[in-house]
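Notes from hallway chat w/ T.B., transcribed later so I don't forget. T.B. wanted the structure written out for a chain they're using in a teaching module, and asked if we could keep both sequence and structure tokens in one place. Agreed to drop them here.
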Amino acid sequence: MDLRAHVSNSGYELDEAQLRVIARLQELGERRRGVYLHGPVGRGKSFLADALFEVLPVKRKRRVHFHAFFQELHARISARLYERGAVADAVKELIGRAEVLAFDEFHLHDIGDAMLMTRLLEALRASRTTVIATSNYPPDGLLPNPLYHDHFLPGIALVKELMTVVELEGGPDYRYLHGRPRSRFETGAIRTEAPQATGQIWFDFADLCEKPTSPQDYLALAEQHDDWVITAVPRLEMCDREAQQRFANVVDVLVDKDIRLTLVSEHPLREIAGGTALDLARTASRLELINNTSG
């Protein structure tokens, strides 16, 4: 495997911190050692981890996004709700025969998901599966709520056992350096007036984010509609933390599913994306991908 050559062929010019990480990933990949790659938003973690995933000379490998994975896991557990060992069987079925499992945007805020993640990590250790993960959080920062954090300490220990922790140091957020759109999501916009178009699905921010919706709802809708409009988007700092987190989850899902997004708001992005939810820095960075087409 030659990770450096693979990345070079993509046409990207890499900074020094990224080059150091590539050298480290090359070494770990040759040893088939798991990797937990973390660092600030917009630094190219997903790009580098995807490149490592692609060059690993393994046939049975799977890449999953956090929200989609847990949607599938919850569905498989629900299908076995009254069976003994339902969680263990669902986890085993999800892993299957994969030799490499890659997680994008690894983060945990929900105690229930954290407990399931611990079970999953135990199963991955038992099956000797190589794990690749990207995150904005170092392992010790997962499940940061102090009320619950101690409950995930066994999971954090497993993360460190299964994966070598690699930090991609701070530098420019490349999402702020606009260029030609490279995805459908990037063809969206932030506008002050509603667009006149057909084939879109429309949501009011209050209905989508201020009511008890979940990533599973967004994933189901994203399977059916690839062009979203969210109207009446407020300054997030004026919303409660749950609404802020739901909005962050919506953007995560739409980026991963490559859905076109138009936000309609009387506020510019710098005012929209303020707030206290832990994932809003990532959200603001991702919305910069469409901010240059605002009208």
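Follow-up for T.B.: DSSP finds twelve helices and nine strands in the chain. Might be a good example for the class.
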